[in-house]
Specification:
The chain is an alpha+beta fold. Helices cover 16% and strands 48% of the residues. A hairpin with a 3-residue loop joins strand 2 and strand 3.
Length: 116
Amino acid sequence: MQIRRIVPDFRSADPAASREFYENVLGLETVMDLGWIRTFAAPDNPTAQINVMERDASAQVNSDVSIEVDDVDGAYAAAEQMGCEVVHLLTDEPWGVRRFFVREPNGKVLNILTHR
């Protein structure tokens, strides 16, 4: 399996309020804004990203990190085979990703996804 990017997911009561900081202090650009989540990326390296979110729109729990892979179905099958705690089932989301959430051994929730 190939990892395409790993992005920290920061919680915020107001994701839009982060725009000025990330754009002016770090030179990042807003590359996605769904209201409940805003993604900032480096203009010269679009895989260098930070997510700032209020709460996940379709999951019961927020993730700590998002990891884009080339085979989300394979990762899901491996997690199930290992008996990992899946906290958000494999789902095709309306914003164009296929993803699931799994709790890793230290208790962190990973959002494992691929773009469709």
